[in-house]
Queue: 4 jobs
Job 1
Amino acid sequence: MTTLATAAEPSLEELQVQAQQGSPDAQLSLAIRYRDGNGVAKDDAAAMSWGHRAADQGHAEALDFVGFAYLRGAVVRRNPEVAFGYFKAAADESAQGAFNLGQCYFGAQGTEQDCGKAVDWWKKAAAKGHGRAASTAAMALLSGEGVPADPAEARRLAERAAALNDPSGLVVLGELQFRAGELDAAKSNWEKAAKLFPTSETGHPAQPSGNASAQQGADLLKLIEYRQRKSEPGEFAFVQMPHIHQGYNNCGSTACATFARFQGGEISGWDFKKLCPSPLGTGTDWWHLLDASAKIGQQWKLVTFTPDDAGFEEATAMLKRELDAGRPVVVDFKYVGPQYPGGFAGHTLSVCGYIVAEDLYILCNPAVATPGLQLITSDDLKNFWRSNYYGSLAKGVLSRPAFVIER
């Protein structure tokens, strides 16, 4: 996203004069202020008007600003094809534009999917100083998601992201160090990540990317001991899962691909999505995900629980039974809030552990940095683990859905 206006900028009155005189920098600054309601009443129409005026002059960051508005669909009607065109025009000069262009190629947004081109553009953005682009490319190369796996290049990019002080890069590099037995280095990077944004006892899966990565750093520090311990049924369990960082709107298929990989499969999130009838870059019906699992020889079943307290007790008892047996569980979350187009969003991820003494559960989330681990309180799990749009056959009835390994 475009950098927010800072205190060093001219006053609103000065910006308005400069913008009227044709300064694209001032026009973009005004657009950002109107979008965010920073020192002026929030006004989406004014934000887009000033953004367009700067973009029409070829201002690279303004081109990215307008493109992101069309991709997100929160300020104007969503149009990925228009967004892609703006990002392509911005990418040679704008690191953020190059990152977003890579996102479009990776997630088939406004263009045919091309994961190789996505990684190339992320690398170009990383060379321009974009830390998140470096960490995102590292994760694609780690898991071999749409491109051949390249652990050495993944580590180089994770180191680049960490050098740029990107919180997700610090998380990924710390994880690579943890796996290599470089425990002190891993701790150091997770501590750095945790200091970049405010953290708390736990976060929640709906946090913005930077906040989520900082919280991950704090969570991973707490989890070091547990990840090195043998599970104690009824008290603590941790099931190590592979992690694939999802592309745009591909949480369901990506979570299912990691579930399949846990059971010995090799499928990617995108290849799992291609087994379903819905197009790339769109949400996936859970019954289609279940059908796709059968196509690759996986024996899963869908179970649901009522959204009340009694249903949560039954659901968490099931979770603990599965996790005690060394089996993770895929669940569907629902987020509600004005920041989501339409007022809500759904997200699919896995529960891979629990800690009774701290009343915590461990998630493996395809939307956050590798290893994807996050801690969540029991109360937050109760709040988020519910859905009435996970599949057409649900008929809008709110429940707590889960995929479990059929035995």
Note: The longest strand covers residues 344-355.
Job 2
Amino acid sequence: MVWKKTKYSGWGRVQHATAELARPERARSLKAVVETHPCPAIGNCRSYGDAALNDGGRAIDMTRMNRIIDFDAGSGVVTVEAGITIGDLAHVFAPRGWLPAVMPGTGFATVGGCIAQDVHGKNHHNEGSFGQHVLSVTLLTGDKRTVATPSRNASLFRATMGGIGQTGVIAEAKLQLKPCPGDVMMVTERRAEDWDDHIALLDGSQATYCVGWIDTTAKGAALGRGVIEEAELAAGLLPKAKPSKKIPLDAPKFALSNPVVRAFNNAYYRRVPGSGRSSVKRIDDFFFPLDKIHDWNRLYGKRGFYQFQNVVPLDQADALKAMLELIAGAGLSSPLAVLKRMGSGRAGHMSFPMEGYTLAVDFPARDAAVDLIAMLEDMTMDAGGRLYLAKDALATGPAIKAMYPEHGDWVKQVNKADPDHALETDMVRRLNLREAG
């Protein structure tokens, strides 16, 4: 196996690593690499921070391990290699009446990455997290090949879902897809005039898929305004695909200055009529709206950006509102901000979801943003919430361990599965996650 010295980064482009990467193409090659050079596995590096980085070490690039191994058209059960992307699964199976039960905001996420972060989607309040639809996972550690399911090697399975790749290299997974009537979406958009209206619309939604875009520059009576998007899968005439765009250069700093963001957000809010509107969209346009803009992370300039995402319990909506007030007053956020209501579904010890409200906001990488995110972290902990490791680049280890009460159980399982700590990444070391307490 050829190892190539490579510089790579998380999607936020703030943290970088230089490591030797191998790209196996067959199961036997992957097995040989794990046996001789155990190290973390990575996918398309769509986690925003340092979850996939291993600076100064080695990593296994799984993106060529992307085959469909088996599919049962009657039950919707599919077995795949871990490097296949969610977008590819949707494109292959939606026309055949099946869809991944949970899809994150990008179709470029690999199945292995979705398991490692136990990702959630716009239907979390109905379908729970990705790991709850995983029927089995095949893990490679040294010369061992272990199959874990919710009932067989159940403790290892739970430590793997949301386990940041620390229980072994995920080679294969068996997934339960959900039936879908077609490959289009019926989408309804409505304005939320302020915070209370936004929360009420999220709470009252009966739609299968529901997400809110929130204007993080709005203040005063308009604080929390945004657009609620609800959707259902449907059969119908497939809309014409939109052409892809590419960001060829890093954008200048003024491109996301506060006046520019305020003007964009105002226009984006008002593009939806006061009476609302309905439309038909392609599946990928609804689930992965930013994937049509390749390298959109370059819009934040060469310094990159941080994404802050937290979740707080339902009875802490006022605490989240206070965070939004702090964000609006700071004048640092970008147009990309999302508010959703989550259910209780989670599959692993370190899975992010809890029943409550989740807020995700992008900030250009500036010193003031680091200070702001530190304050938001403290407020999240005080509210009994938690931060999402797939998005984190700045959290502290004691805070994360306090936010995840099952962390100690996870530590026992991962240190048993990987006693030599060969699978540690920069994030794991930064947060000292492999140590209890």
Note: The domain at 68-180 is CATH 3.30.465.10 (Uridine Diphospho-n-acetylenolpyruvylglucosamine Reductase; domain 3).
Job 3
Amino acid sequence: MDLLSWLLIAGGVCYESCYPPARKGEYSVRIISFSHPIPRFLLLLLLLALSDTGCSNKTEKPKTKAPAPVTVARVTQKDVPVELRAIGNVEPYATVALKSRVAGMITGVQFKEGDDVAKGALLFTVDPRPFQASLAQAQANLARDLASANNAREQAKRYASLWQEGIVTREQYDQLQATADSLAASVASLRAAVDNAKLQLEYCFIRSPMAGRTGGLTTHPGNLVKENDTALVSINQIVPLYVTFALPEKDLATIKGRIGGKLPVEARVAGSAVAERGTVTFLDNGVDPATGTIKVKATFANARKALWPGQFVNVAITLDTRKGATVVPTRAVQTGQQGEFVYLVKPDATAEVRPVTTGPSLDGMTVIEKGLAPGDTVVTDGQVKLVPGGKVAVKGGAPA
């Protein structure tokens, strides 16, 4: 209890407080009645204490609210591409797992892991000596039977003349002719055996079937390999390559109508400022009923080898370009109960709520279909402190 209250009670004064106080730190009271006479010295103290107090209806003047600090930007016009965006996966244009077509020992590996190899480049050598011997044997057999076949053919010719002259019988001629035909067939068989031996010998030298990049080795010189067994190395063709992605089925009609016109596509690796450019080359023959999407494949030249098989990339298909579209930073657009709106900074440095109709967004900019004009100033940061008609203080961005 403060001193004034104590004195009033001690003097038998009935009182009530009046709020709010006239000035900060003071009390205002109204004396209602006295229960008994007040001593003069006590009344004097009361008068002195109450000389600066009293019930007052005066209130403090409302404080002027400080302008809200905001960042602003100008409404501009620019050409905005209309795009479809998706996440794609990079795939090699072709991939091959090389296997040996003959059994034997690896005697040479003519490349290093991760090398770029040309089509036809020698990669592995299987010991060729057993196959060289088989080829030599087949060639010798062919030469033997070829000589016999030539002799039999000549004898058959001579007996044909003798048979016509009646010197030999028809049976003797037929027997020699059959022998010549049999040897001719044997020669043809041995020619095929020689060709097969050459082919087996050629299989000892394993070459790259395409230009590409080699992966990790699974075998080394001295290892034995079997025919058509474990892959020796995998080769991916990465120039060119594919990027596969999925689009919603609602965009199917748009893609179908333009796929024949080399629909342009951009692929960008996360964190890269440079986009690779390609074209849509494949549209799947059905929509996935589980996801409601359709598979699309684009081909990229990949001359800089910026894309790598297995990567995930951001894909953008450019459908059209809107010339001179009105745009604002996307962060300026707010969403309320009545729809989308922006805070417009008026020439008198006050904020106005302006409903807008938005279009597509791209790279942090949003197209404004209706509600703003080029040159308007909108708030891009600090909207939470704004009220319609409130003052603003521009702290950054375009001058208001």
Note: The two ends are 56 Å apart (CA to CA).
Job 4
Amino acid sequence: MRGILVKGSLFFAIFILLLVSGNFANATPATQAGEYSSDDFAYESRCRQCHAIIYADWEGTMHFNAYLDPFYLEEVKIASEDTDGELDEFCSRCHTPIGVVSGEIPPIDGSEMSDIARLGVQCDFCHVVSGSNGTGNAPFTVSPGDTKWGPFNDSRDAYHKSEYLELYTQSEYCGMCHQVINPVNGLVIDDTYSTWKESQYAEENVVCQDCHMTEGITEFKANPGRASSSAPKRDHISSHDIVGANTLIPPMFGAENVAEMAVERLEKATTIELTAPEIASAGDEVTIDVAITNSGAGHKIPTGVSEIREIWLEVTATDANGESIYDAGSLDADGNIIDAKMLYNNVLGDTNGEETKSFWLAESILEDNRIAPKETVTEHHSFVLPENAVYPITVESTLKYRSAPQDMIDHLLGEETEVPVVDMNEMSAIIYDPSTPANERTQPEPESESTPGFGVVTAAMVLGFTMYVLKRK
């Protein structure tokens, strides 16, 4: 087996799970594989009869497509082969939780799965979570049946019984799946929850739901309404789109609106500041500094499977005739990033200390180049101004994001799938000839911090709404 080794480190993995747990004082035993039947869960079509708005929020999101996500299906197939099936239940516990608790996974190919198990992270699974055995690796307790749990302590019983559970108002609910620890060697491979826990957001009691389940982007904004057609009107009802930064997968299922929300979230995640000289002479070495601040995310950016996520800065300088003087971070014809100063992501190492993008083969973290909440990092760029450059010189800096490297998606999904690239933020400056009078030198207006950039999805494969509906069925 090429996969995970060091089984003697299982104790260490358990220690890490306890370390990041926020709720183990009130822990309940985690539901085990095969403990229930898929018949114990209700289809979302029943839920939508009373919760139509919430259902519309959720439809098309990454939770909705947690199992059908073609990237996940290809990755988990390779992981299963590499580890002789050791990770089948581990990965599936978050992507098809009903499939796991009903014992329909493994086999990993889904051949034994019921229709309801293919519905990903769906209504009746989330709202029969009745407790947790901590945080990380999906230690949820589920109690399928007529009682549904949620964040309100005054809900009326109607079609089903309603119970309040404080867990639904805490980051620890999200942290059950959004904290992933290698179950054998204890390596943390997704630290979304723990990087939030270590941030000032946690200190100020700003929880995941305040940003990801409100009408605001990267900040709380009340969403008045009713949780169901028969429920009382409230000052705030949680939005169930729960969008992150994935712009690649939703359009494949016709959910362009979800990708648009992801772009908006990415646009609001950072601020940047570009420093450049106002004048420079031919032959001068020009230094450009670009400061990037994670001003809007309550966790490191990027997060999730951060070994494949890519954030980088593109910096260009062109003269008045459009001639390129400097170019760092542009894409070539094959979608490769050329000469970027830094890729802001997590670099995992395998047993030989070589970089791997397959987290199931990872034994160490070689580098963590991500940007922590409220942290500022600065890139330094420099070039010599050519003798034949035509003034003024325009310097542009653009912070870019994409969900995965293009060559990786080419390999897994085919070359017809172009990975969307989002402009998270941008800023520019103009360098003048020293002979230009000061009153004729103008600089571009910086973007306001509340709208720190213009996002642009350069391309996405759209399979169409018909295919989307057929796949759900």
Note: The mean pLDDT is 90.
